[in-house]
Amino acid sequence: MSRVRVNTVQVRPSRLPAEFEGLRIAQLSDLHLRRWNGILDETRRRLLELDPELVVITGDIGDADAEAQRSADLAARLLEGVHPSLGCFGVLGNHDDPQLAEQLSGHVRMMSNEHAELTKAGGSMMIAGVDGRTPTSGDIPSALLGIKPDSFIILLAHHPPLVYRLPPNRVGLMLAGHTHAGQIRLPVIGPLWPTFEGIPRKYCRGLHEVNGTFLHVSAGVGCSWAVPFRIGCPPEIALITLTGRSAAVQ
Question: What gap in Å lies between CA 134 and CA 181, rounded to an integer?
Fold first, then answer.
């Protein structure tokens, strides 16, 4: 039985360039890499099977009690053989050592309050990323500076509440993590924690729309050192498909 869930999500954002119709994005989050284990082995196999065009990691690649170089080496092992045509991008989270950004170069383009252009079949879109080492270190104006008003933007962030700081209708899709979807979820009750840094309880995982931006919050793959287990909340890879043909919000 699989221990890693592939959460398939379809999103219909506005202004999606026709060349990116059907774009498949694999979102990883909250890996908390300390040592190799069966979950990571299965995550790697799943990534290879999914063969996405774009891979993103929305923070907490490492962990507070893990040496940064070891976390970087484990991330490289996880991504071995994974070659998305549009690349692999990531942002730091609150458990990440700043050195990770440099140590992961060659495997993941780590973004800190900046953006880059993605091109496909003559079309283009922008991918931006904000620093997530603290809830307030993400500089959205810097990340979006210079992007044309009509550009489609994917924004990577660690902390979901940043969605409230976005200009309305400016970002097509924001991808975030941090919450672990509660990590411990009980039937009927759901996550044990009532709020997550100012976002509604229901926003701790899944797809939502906030002020004209689709927000997807990943349940993540790993566990924090303080609570090293999951209950009712399996590790996940989110496979997100962008389309202009049909809308779905989960």
Answer: 19
Residue 248: inside a domain, yes or no?
Answer: no
Domain count, the chain: 1
Q: What would the pLDDT profile of 175-202 be if each residue is shown by its tens digit?
A: 999 999 989 888 878 887 755 677 888 8
The phi, psi pair for 230, rounded to 5°, reads -120, 145
Percent above pLDDT 90 for the chain: 80
pTM for the full model? 0.95
244 HSE (CA, 13 A, CB side): 10
Kindly report the number of other CB atoms within 10 A of residue 169's CB atom. Answer: 11
Q: Which of 13, 60, 46, 18 is nearest to 156 (CA)?
A: 60
Tokens of 161: 């509440």
pLDDT given for residue 249 in this prediction? 41
CATH number of the domain that residue 137 is part of: 3.60.21.10
User: Rounded to an integer, what distance in angstroms lies between the CA atom of residue 119 and that of residue 89?
Assistant: 14
